[in-house]
Amino acid sequence: MLFTSYIELSKSALNNNIQYLKKKAGPGTRYSLVVKANAYGHGIEDLLPMVEACGVDHVSVFSLEEARRALEIKKQACDLMIMGFVDNDHLEWVIENDISFFIFTKERLDAVCKVASTTTKPARIHVEMETGMHRTGFPESTLEYVANKLLENKENIYLEGLCTHFAGAESMENFERVNNQIKNFNRLCSWFNKEKGLIPKYRHVACSAGVLNFPDSSMDMVRVGISSYGFWPNNETRMLHFRNSGFSEDPLHQVLSWKSRV
Ligand SMILES: *Cc1c(COP(=O)(O)O)cnc(C)c1O
Prior knowledge:
single chain, alpha/beta, eight-stranded parallel beta barrel, binds pyridoxal-5'-phosphate
């Protein structure tokens, strides 16, 4: 007995959650499994191969360091996306490694345009728009600038995504505000399309609570973290779900268990 306690990760629980959430998101929606924060404490290196074995071919991280770790272990067929901040010094590395990434400031967009004119690959960017979260994202007043930059640099920059992030989609007290975020987002996407002729490959806004509480939010891709691991975003979402669907059993199974031998 080398250890008295150990952590066990269940592939069947992970697969159960992924299949359940994929079904919720609907057919044709790409499933990106969020493995930021060391795969929510499960360990990127341990979890990522299990995620791939469950048929998921897109993972999202927040930081560059997490991207470096994921890149080392993931299969080539699995796409990697950085949702947080990438500084100018690392843009070249990110682009050459085929990693897609969020852009949410003019300064960074300018820097990407410069760097991407010298790299062998185009930059795969996701333009994050401010729709009501007030964390990161381009405010509407800057989108004219963004769209024109994309058009000027379309040889080197690929608009892979338009996206936004919800503020508190797990709480029903935010129901109206999140619905407004979805409306705003759709309006801004059609502005890109109609005024600028720009259509992204993926429109994506939904985190776990989006997939579970706002069916309209699944769109072309979903970014699912906590519920993939078998945890509900909060008790309110869990309770609503149980009541509405009449489940007697929890459709989500916890991936992690802590075991001890006596
Ligand atoms: C963390 C995060 C997610 C996933 O959120 P969950 O609630 O864990 O599903 C999705 N998108 C962004 C931008 C995030 O930072």
